[in-house]
Fold this protein.
Amino acid sequence: MNAIIFSAVWGIVMMFTGVLAKTKTVIQYTAIAGLILLLVVNILDLGGNHFFDIDVHNMLYFAPFGLLFNCIAFAATLIYFLLSSKDILEVGTNGADYFALIFFVLCGISIVTSFNTLLMLFLGIEIISIPLYILTGAAKRDLKSNEASLKYFLMGAFSTGLMLLGIAFLYGATPNGSFFLDDVAVGRTAISPLYMIGLLLLLVSMSFKVSAAPFHFWTPDVYDGAPTVFTSFMATIVKAGIFIAFIRLFEDAFEPMQSRWQLFVSIIIAATLFIGNITAVFQQSVKRMLAYSSISQAGFMLFGLLALGEFAKEGIILYTAAYSAATIGIFAVLIKMKDYSFDGFNGLAKHHPVLAATTTLFLLSLAGIPLTGGFFAKYYMLAAALKTGSFLWLVIFAVLCAAISVYYYFRIIQAMYFKDGEPQQMETSTGFRLVLILLAVIIVLLGIFPQWLINQLYILYL
Amino acid sequence: MIPVLLILIPLACGFAGFFIPHPHAAKNWSLVSSMITLVISVGGLTAYNGNVYTHFQAEWLTTLGARFSVGLDGMGQILTLLTAVSFPVIFISTYRNEYKNAKNFYALMLLSQAGLMGVFVATDALLFYFFWELALIPVYFLASQWGGEKRIQATFKFFVYTFTGSLLMLVGIIFLYFQTKDHSFSMDSFYALHATIPAGSQSWLFWLFFIAFAIKMPIFPFHTWQPDTYEQSPTATTMVLSGVMVKMGLFGIIRWLAPVLPVATWAWGDTVSSLCVIGMIYASLIAMQQDDLKRLVAYSSIAHVGLMCLAIFATTKTGMQGVMIQMFNHGINIIGLWIVVNLIERQFHTRKISELGGLAQKAPVLAILLVIVALANVALPLTNAFVGEFLMFSGIYSSTATAYNVVFTVAAGVCIILSAVYTLNMIQKVFYGNTNALTQNAKDINFSEKIILSALVVIIVLIGVYPQPILDLTKNIVETIITKMNYKL
Amino acid sequence: MPINYYIFLAVALFCIGVAGVLTRRNAIIVFMCVELMLNAVNLLLVAFSKMHHLALAKNDLNAGINGQIFVFFIMVVAAAEVSVGLAIIVMMYRNTHSVDVNFLNRLKH
Amino acid sequence: MSKLVYLVPLFPLMGFLINGLFRKNLSKSLTGIIGCGTVLASFIVSLLIFSETRKEGFETVVVKLFDFINADKLHIPFSFQVDQLSILFLLIITGVGFLIHVYSTSYMQDEEGEHFARYFSYLNLFIFSMLILVLGANYVIMFIGWEGVGLCSYLLIGYWFKNIDYDNAAKKAFVMNRIGDLGFLIALFWMINTYGSVNFAEVFAKAPGTAIPILTGITLLLFVGATGKSAQIPLYTWLPDAMAGPTPVSALIHAATMVTAGIYMIARSNILYTLAPITQTVVAVIGLATAFFAATIALKQNDIKKVLAYSTVSQLGYMFLGLGVGAYTGAVFHVMTHAFFKALLFLGAGSVIHALHEQDIRKMGGLKKFMPVTHFTFLLGCFAIAGIPPFSGFFSKDEILAAAYAKNPIYFVVGLITALMTAFYMFRLYATAFLGNFRGTSEQQHHLHESPSAITIPLIILAILAVVGGFAGIPDVFAKNAHLLHHFLSPVFEKSERLKPVIEQSNSLELTLMAVSVFVELIGMLYAWNRFSKDPELGEPQGFGTVLANKWYVDELYDTIIVRPINALGKFFNDVFEKSIVDGLVNGIGRTIQYGSRQLRLLQSGQVGAYVLMMVLGIVILFVIQIILKK
Amino acid sequence: MGVTQILFWVLSVVAILSAIMVVVSKSPIHSVLWLIMVFFAISGHYILLNAQFLAIVNLIVYAGAIMVLFLFVIMLMNLNADTEPQKNKWLKIAGVIAGGALLLVFVGALKNADLKNQIAQVNNGDIGLIHNLGIALFTDYVIPFEISSVLFLSAMVGAVVIGKKD
């Protein structure tokens, strides 16, 4: 609850700084300070210090899993701010409002990580989505941004419709007419067609939000068209947050009939991995490639949904952390560049060795090479799927796709290290580089001691 | 503690190496580091009593069932020794090669050494996988950055190829992990699995592992990355690749595949053996056609490795003994060949056999040393490879794992003849005949190169004449593995 | 009324909305079709709410009320969405003088 | 003394190392002294051991040096065996070897110091390998020597490595030997599999209990090895080419010692062969065929060394015939006498070449007056090889022919024809080269002189041996129990002798056979002498002669049916299969992915309607699956 | 067939027909008007179901506020029928077919649903009354109610950010 209220409040604060602040740096520091505060209150919340004693009427349920994820999301956002807050301000004239919107998104994320009824899920997702439509269109003069915003909005609204229809059917199918996850989940031996339709529609609409195939089509265009700073935010923190919601929904509401929907999830995973990886191969723009890569990474994260259970949830936590860290890092570098094509990276290693080295590490992590967080992230997902004992074909398919993913990730490495090119004009501060190094260190630490993060989960349970 | 040191020293020195600005200092630094590793390895060898594991364990991924657990048995000893010997040899023999960004080059070399050491000492499947990849990454960078013209494509193919294989292996490892009783990645838990996994599962699990190993070795038809990569990589990297990394595949089969899935190993034995034999003849025939020295050696290596793999699947103690000693020998011999190739390339800037000639007049010492190494490559008696090949052939012939043992022996034997053909061809065209415009001003090798090649030759002859110490070293582990491999459901 | 009448009605309206989204190019009309879909859902929710109320009113006087509350929130969200959506459409119109969803087609492949 | 047998190979090894490592620092004379001295030392030790073996009650001595390979149940000691057979070979090798070393010091005098030392180190290495071969107490040690001599042969044939033809000859020798070696090796593995051992003692002890097919297989494979090393059909073609090496090398390796390794091996394994009659027949037939075939080729050769080379092949065929018909002693006897007279002939030829720098006999003629010693010793050698009594060849050849007759008269007849041809071509060679008028250039004539004593003394010694060597084996028809060699070797062949059916041949028959063969040989000799001394055959051969001069086109045949197909296959693999299929498949996967990527991204049409359509289709598909699953 | 039933059928037919007209109409203005028609029909259904509050809110918020907003925008942009270029015919047909297929699979999936005894209560039942809804909204549902303010805030900020002239 701390996080929900604080983020909403800080969103308002940011709105006012836009009016009151004299310089951009003030806005920047306010945002960063707010985020640190947010992180702190969330950690306090985890530790049992609830600032607000509110009867939530069972609408929300604050489990350590969700709170821990909040920490990750906030920490990631903090790093994101540290790296790119300047660039956020440069997108348009309403810098402070962008920060406000981001805080509202974080509020939405805090809701979807703690919802206990379908109503709160719906509200949370909308609170996430609406600011994102705006952020996507933030570069108002940029037609690409316009286009992305419109596409995102129309398709987002459409998927909202699907989700609502699903919720309606579920509501009809529950014996006592309830939106509470517990009531939705009550043991049912014979599932009525209504229920199944509702479940499938929810699966579809959530798949849309996490950009799983064949509901992913908005992703490349939106990620490509949106201002790069916001793409970074959307592709990482937001996506991860919705994933948590996805998992929570299916774990709390639909676990009893897992066998009924696993097949569908597996089909979606296969399609996602296939389309995401294959299509990424031919991309010429790194930004667009990263959009496709985020689709393929979603395919991997969906394994957590397929398997469910503690192990998978641990994995998802790790995955979101590792994936967000790496992607934020790459985007932060990308933002600084003028040329988003692969050739734009040519010879980067020579002129910006720190950037090149850290980017390499991020890419290795995304590709799932051992000793990076990305490896254990993938490991957990694959292991969770194998643990169920019945999705070997999918796992093998997934690793083959992972092998394909090496192709496009390593293209950047090849460009940076093995090709010569004219240096791009890039201004990077020492602080920027330090944060990048910090990020790289985090990824390596996750790759060596992944259980540190997961242990937090257990410690907090006790 | 020795296995830990074997990993740690190159690892630490490697990382430190990135920060040594002066190229010459970086070179010496890595040389010294590799020397220290060698000393430790030899020290470990003398302390080894032939039986128990030298074991070190530390809690690591406890919740996942993985530990940092390393140990050395006879096979580990011999392969770590090979790794430890190879690197100083490589550093010294390429001492006069100049690399751009030398510090990165040498640092990456040391990191790959750490990875290799890790592969050979890991007694935990996940750790093994870790090192398996760790050894690959630096080599990829080495080959891509300091290689030939088409290096990027060639090494990338190599990387994707091996990475695909290792991912499949990862699936296999995780699957097996869930089958273990105590949910552990430890080698003992894996070894305990052989009786519990039904033949059907073993059958496909086998391929998950085998493809990874087959790509690494490589076995026909998974070999096509190899000639290109060898050709395009800087010679020092090629030495690592062919001298040591190739052994990872063989090692993997012996340590992680055959004892764990004996039934499948038995069942697929004929298929794999056929692949090996086909590959041997195939590679030998292609080697005869090569004009590029590096490609020639690459194909000859495919043929040799095919024989080793064949001998593993023969499931005989004699054959396995042969494999053990041959893994070491092949490493030494092929590094010797690469040294010569490197010397030639550095001097004439070509590797085309057809462009060379008459070198024996100008560089007699080089010629003599090459001839000895080449003869070891064709397994002439009293060279090291003879012992290995003899034992392997003997094992293949007396194998009861297959009904086609005689066919395999004869077919593999044909490669002995073919290897003589292409090796002698190479010697003849490079060293004999008259000098031409390119080679008439050739110089003989200098002192340090002479020393290092002579050292290799001494090792070759020493093992060739008195192989017993090495055979004794691996005796126990061979017994153990063959016993496990002979398990029937 | 039997509930399946409502279900079929709602589904029919929903699918008409979907068909509209699929066939029209005018962004505003596409958006309106989305609104149509939402209304179909609302109708369904209300029908279910009354269905549950009928079945459970003995134990709980307010049984089924949550369905109608949900509809209320859907309207809230719809209103918010409309404000943002129309703003986006207007922005695009300002830049391109078109509301054709296919007019802007720079992002593809 | 037998215990010190390891000294015998040790000396040449030291010679090899010293000459090899310090070849740049040693003077030629020192090199020569080291080279010859070490072999002499070996010879002396061998003599001492020989004297020991002559004593009554000498038992075979096995000297184990160390464990070579101990793996599982396989124990292969590095051990030497001293018995009558090996000591006989030791004497031949070190004795003839020493003479040839001495000869070489003069013959190779023109070489630079470094290469001179290289030559001697190779030669010493050869002696070492050959000694290992004959001393080995098991097949593996024998194999070490076996391949070792092959290597030395390779190195020495290609001694003048600047000449690519010579290198090719060397390579051919090595590869053909390797083909044979593969047979040898497989025989070894079979042996290991059957007996669990390769030690002579164990294998021979267990042999009688073995199934005949297995024994036949093993012995045939061993014989394959022998055909490679001893230049028998079908692997004989390397030997004539091997004449590219320096002549002393041809004398030592390709006449006196190495090529007899096959005979030694079979003689050593006599018990196995005796127990496998089929193999024996094969050996005999192959031997006979080779003898005949090579002799026909020799008829039309004009290169002095080539003639001798083919005659060597032919004589080796005789030896195999002897082995095949069970006349082991006869075969070994022929090895010994052949070593003497063939070394003599080669060295004689070398002396001529040294003087003339010419190998074509058509350009010689009348050398008799210029080189009397060479001429005389060469003539003696010719008598010996032609089998004219009482020269050594007569005794050994007739022993084999007699045994062949006993086995099958056809063997004898073919052998006889071969003997006729042998006499003919040897005296054709002799007459063309030494008689008549000198046909070389005047400059050659100007330099023409008798060779120095380092060359002539070995010639003389060998000539003496060639003349008297035959008396070591006087057949029973002339004097009872005068066959010293038979007596000496009997412990080795004892078991085989017992197994052999005793065929009583009357003395009269044997004498008749001898008379016939001597008669035939004399005809061949006199005809050739008569004809070629007056009217040497100088032109190019006509008609069938072309076929013979071109060696029945066997090289071409091999080239067509083996070498070229293999090359074509390799080329096909390299250019087509590897690139298009194996690698093509791998790259094809990559390309397919790329292509798929290009196509699949078109799905991303950029139109919202299309995207929603996909979504709806996705939903429909999911529902359809659900509906189907329900049913 | 009582009045309720007749009303149900009439309203349903009106709703569906109007909905189809929304999609089919060439002119955006007509579409808006037809949509308002749909809303009215749906409000009628609400009244039938005795959901008075929602019926009124539906009219006020949807038909009143939202649709006016739409109308306003359309007028502002001066869009008429011609401005919309014809969409690819095949894509259109595909759209209709896909919509129909969706309907078909829904029906197919629901066919076996055992809903015969499930009746939606019409005419009576108090839950739809403003009093009851109000109590529920401000007690049990106060949290979502409050949280929706965040939604509005963000929508407001968004509309300003997007709509404001730079």
